[in-house]
Specification:
Layout lengths: L1 H17 L5 E10 L7 H6 L3 E11 L2 E6 L16 E5 L8 E5 L4 E8 L2 E8 L6 E9 L2 E9 L5 E7 L17 E7 L4 E9 L14 E4 H12 L8 E5 L2
Parallel strand pairs: 7-13
Antiparallel strand pairs: 1-2, 1-12, 2-3, 3-5, 4-14, 5-6, 6-7, 8-9, 9-10, 10-11, 11-12
Length: 244
């Protein structure tokens, strides 16, 4: 009788350890090195080298919603102290933006603001040419596998994903792997996303399709960005100084 009890206990523990997570929330820390490709020393002197913020990814029913974590107000690290502000856009939702992806329909909606207007960019989920590797590491107790990518802009990306969360989700545009991405390194430290917490529930209020703003295509939105800020740098950044 004792033998059967021990066997059953081991079996239950094994099942619990290998149980897959199909609903939840991943909190990421995003750290960006803004000096990496800056050529203008005057602009570089006005901008802190690193900026760190937190992002959150809700996932449920083959849908993911990605947005910044709202934090208490703090001094703006990009205020130059002389009445001017340097704005750097590095992609992703940023403050107030939302990325909604439906992996069943392949729909992708990005809710964002430009000036004093809100927009919803209608798009589709793009397939990325990931190369899977044999290397492994553990992140937050989850076994992860390595994948690499060379983007169209020439960026080198290393991703670590876990099949414990069997959904092709990840931060910003980094999706399409056989499991959730828990870490991303772009250009050896230029931008790094690291999962710092995984919750096994998703807020149903966050799982809704964005509905605030005028719908337009990504091409039309990029045209508006060019009109306001000029073309982006080769790596996709836009750097603009406001004020004096």
């Amino acid at each position: 009788m004792k033998k059967y009890f021990v066997t059953a206990t081991i079996l239950l523990c094994t099942l619990a350890a290998t149980a897959q997570i199909k609903e939840g929330t991943i909190i990421y820390e995003r750290k960006a090195d803004f000096h990496r490709r800056m050529q203008d020393e005057q602009v570089k002197a006005m901008v802190p080298q690193f900026r760190t913020d937190k992002q959150q990814l809700f996932f449920k029913d083959n849908i993911s919603v990605y947005k910044a974590v709202e934090e208490d107000e703090a001094p703006d690290p990009f205020d130059d102290g002389r009445g001017g502000t340097v704005m750097i856009k590095i992609g992703g939702p940023g403050e107030g933006g939302v990325l909604y992806k439906n992996f069943t329909t392949q729909q992708f909606f990005e809710q964002t603001s430009l000036g004093d207007k809100d927009y919803i960019i209608d798009d589709t989920i793009k397939a990325l040419a990931w190369k899977l590797a044999d290397e492994t590491k553990t992140i937050l107790g989850h076994a992860c596998k390595k994948a690499t990518l060379k983007t169209q802009m020439g960026n080198d990306v290393v991703a670590w994903y876990t099949e414990d969360i069997p959904l092709p989700i990840g931060p910003e545009s980094f999706t399409g792997l056989p499991g959730a991405v828990l870490m991303i390194d772009v250009n050896n430290g230029e931008i790094v996303f690291t999962a710092i917490e995984i919750k096994k529930d998703a807020d149903d209020k966050e799982m809704k399709t964005p509905n605030t703003g005028k719908h337009l295509t990504r091409a039309d939105f990029e045209k508006k960005m060019d009109e306001l800020f000029g073309p982006p740098t080769p790596d996709g950044k836009r750097i603009v100084q406001f004020g004096n």
